[in-house]
Design brief:
This protein is mainly β. The protein is about 0% helix and about 40% strand. The chain contains one helix and 21 strands. It is globular and about 90 Å long.
Length: about 300
């Protein structure tokens, strides 16, 4: 009988949890606790060593969460961190299923399925992959709204072996209700008309949600340029109903009219409860012409 856990919950894999059973097709290498640098070099995570595997292609290793309830959920989500580097053309896969009422792994309940280069968080590697830091991890966020009201659910993480490279899993979290809601109130810089081209955009953000915001990502792009992102630092904290100014990295405006688009994303790593007020677009004209005095 699977154990039950109260939602919301999180699992950082500081140790191998006994309440997360593992099924191993080939009785060989399977999910195991290992050191895998993330925010800290001593971080521990679940690792699936497929680099050294001798199992036939397609064998699976499954780890399943305890039972949790979404009976009272309004906006349920779950998230997890993944790290993987593909080896050659060997495309290992990670799939996630929602198990209903202690049932099986049904295709209709598959909520995540990535493999090979799509799963990868680092460049292709011919040697055994071990993440070197946070830049080789990716957070995945999955909407569980289709399972609202369900009283007995579980998450099954399935590694599919292609004898490629190692897959790492960390920081699994389930929430019943989104509490995060931020609003982009105004853009203080750049001003509508400027003499200089270089500027650090400055924005005002308000926490309109029900929980303090400890981290936030700001996505922005200038004119038709690439989308850039800036993450708030580790000391960031925005209490409920509070406002804060955030200064973004410097951008270079072009002569004449510029359009800067800014969007707030992933407050506390989750989707925003009301994304309609997360974006603003501002125009700024650069005019470097100079007049000599006296004017005639």
């Amino acid at each position: 009988i699977p154990e039950t856990i109260t939602s919301p919950f999180s699992q950082a894999f500081n140790q191998l949890p006994s309440a997360w059973p593992i099924t191993n097709d080939d009785n060989g290498t399977t999910w195991a606790l290992t050191t895998a640098a993330n925010e800290s070099t001593s971080n521990t995570a679940l690792g699936l060593n497929l680099f050294s595997s001798s199992a036939v292609n397609g064998t699976t290793d499954v780890i399943v969460s305890p039972v949790f309830s979404l009976a009272n959920a309004n906006s349920p989500y779950f998230s997890f961190d993944v790290a993987y580097a593909q080896r050659g053309s060997n495309a290992d896969a990670l799939r996630v299923y929602v198990i209903s009422n202690c049932g099986g792994l049904l295709e209709t309940n598959k909520v995540f399925d990535k493999s090979g280069s799509i799963l990868s968080t680092a460049g292709s590697l011919s040697s055994s992959f071990v993440p070197s830091g946070a830049n080789q991890w990716r957070k995945e966020v999955i909407d569980l709204s289709a399972y609202k009201g369900q009283q007995r659910g579980q998450l099954a993480f399935v590694g599919v072996n292609a004898r490629g490279n190692n897959i790492y899993l960390d920081n699994v979290a389930v929430i019943s209700n989104l509490l995060e809601d931020v609003a982009l109130r105004t853009v203080l810089q750049p001003s509508p008309v400027r003499c200089g081209a270089e500027v650090n955009p400055v924005i005002v953000v308000e926490n309109t949600g029900q929980i303090a915001i400890q981290n936030l990502t700001v996505a922005y792009h200038l004119n038709n340029g690439a989308v850039l992102t800036s993450n708030t630092g580790s000391n960031f904290s925005l209490g409920v109903s509070q406002r804060i100014q955030i200064t973004l990295p410097q951008v270079t405006l072009q002569q004449g009219e510029n359009v800067l688009n800014i969007e707030l994303t992933r407050p506390n790593g989750w989707p925003d409860l009301n994304p309609a007020d997360n974006s603003l677009s501002v125009k700024s004209v650069v005019n470097t012409a100079q007049d000599r005095i006296p004017l005639r």
